[in-house]
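Here is the promised in-class demo. Please do not try to memorize the tokens; focus on the logic of going from shape to residues.
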């Protein structure tokens, strides 16, 4: 079983993996730490960018000959295939590593099999150390691989009484500068930002990252516009970021030349005939290597995603403001007919952001993972 030193090293590997958030897409975030034969940390690394060296390779390079007969701790199963880089399994074998500790198995079939290959070569391999923590740090990529669609984060800003806008429709600014800057950090970590055409018409948002470092390019701007009502002069059509407009069959732009900054994609409408098929939208985005999206549309679009079971994380920014009256709610749609039917979430984080509070919630946790897998 893993020693205290190995647990500490895996925690370090998880912290390293988190440094890759927002830069590795469509690859996972991965951290690795190498211990020498007496358990001293001699190398560490994390995956920085798709196409670049993997975490294990960087950690082994830092360790050099001190890795001989040592232990490698990796947050995700070492790959066993040649993609844009050689297989990490071979790098571990070449370095003379004797033991490998893995947090989570790789669900991506072409890259999997590393654990079995290492065991077949005579290495001791332990799987499942800090698995829950590793699942969390890599939740975006793991969800994308397992479901075949992007990981969806719904972001909203609201008053204490749950209003996202006043009676006249104004919503700028419910939250303060610190919360708004945090939203840009959230955008920077996602591959795409989704809004409905109603948001484009009401707010004319740019949907670009402006108050946070852009490490992997501006996210793709996605507009769901079944009947093509996006105005030709909308800011989402400028050249500051790419834009993809999803439309319904038969919808035709009056003059495509008026939309030089956008590409159009047709998907069928939802089963109820209202709006577009959201699962089809996400499938199309996934086929374009989009593994994470930030849902920033209005309350009705958010309600549609939630009703379809397509929200993996909710990030709410709540301001100490009371709007009341007929202000726009943060969430709209049919809703739950009874309190028993309400969609229950798991509140994972409560963080003060300036005068506001950031709440992060997720669907209930899945069933516990199987027992730790240890074999020689």
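The designed amino acids, position by position:
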């Amino acid at each position: 079983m893993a020693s205290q030193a190995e647990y500490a090293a895996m925690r370090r590997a998880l912290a390293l993996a988190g440094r890759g958030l927002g830069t590795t897409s469509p690859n996972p975030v991965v951290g690795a730490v190498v211990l020498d034969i007496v358990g001293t940390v001699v190398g560490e690394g994390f995956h920085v960018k798709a196409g670049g060296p993997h975490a294990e390779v960087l950690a082994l390079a830092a360790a050099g000959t001190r890795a001989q007969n040592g232990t490698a701790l990796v947050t995700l199963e070492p790959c066993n295939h040649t993609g844009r880089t050689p297989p990490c399994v071979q790098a571990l074998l070449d370095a003379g590593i004797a033991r490998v500790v893995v947090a989570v198995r790789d669900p991506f079939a072409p890259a999997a099999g590393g654990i079995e290959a290492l065991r077949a070569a005579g290495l001791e391999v332990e799987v499942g150390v800090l698995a829950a923590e590793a699942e969390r740090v890599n939740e975006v990529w793991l969800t994308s691989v397992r479901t075949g669609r992007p990981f969806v984060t719904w972001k909203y800003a609201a008053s204490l009484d749950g209003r996202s806008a006043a009676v006249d429709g104004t919503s700028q600014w419910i939250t303060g500068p610190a919360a708004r800057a945090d939203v840009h950090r959230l955008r920077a970590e996602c591959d795409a930002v989704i809004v409905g055409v109603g948001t484009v018409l009401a707010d004319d948002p740019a949907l670009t990252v402006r108050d946070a470092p852009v490490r992997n390019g501006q996210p793709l701007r996605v507009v769901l516009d079944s009947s093509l009502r996006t105005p030709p002069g909308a800011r989402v059509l400028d050249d500051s970021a790419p834009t993809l407009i999803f439309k319904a069959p038969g919808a035709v732009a009056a003059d495509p030349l008026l939309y030089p900054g956008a590409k159009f994609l047709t998907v069928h409408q939802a089963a109820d005939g209202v709006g577009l098929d959201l699962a089809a939208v996400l499938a199309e985005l996934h086929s374009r290597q989009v593994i994470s999206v930030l849902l920033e549309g209005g309350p009705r679009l958010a309600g549609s995603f939630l009703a379809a079971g397509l929200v993996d994380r909710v990030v709410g920014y709540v301001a100490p403001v009371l709007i009341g009256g007929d202000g726009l709610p943060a969430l709209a749609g049919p809703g739950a007919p009874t309190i028993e039917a309400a969609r229950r979430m798991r509140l994972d984080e409560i963080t003060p952001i300036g005068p506001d509070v950031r709440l992060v919630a997720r669907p209930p946790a899945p069933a516990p993972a199987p027992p730790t897998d240890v074999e020689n």
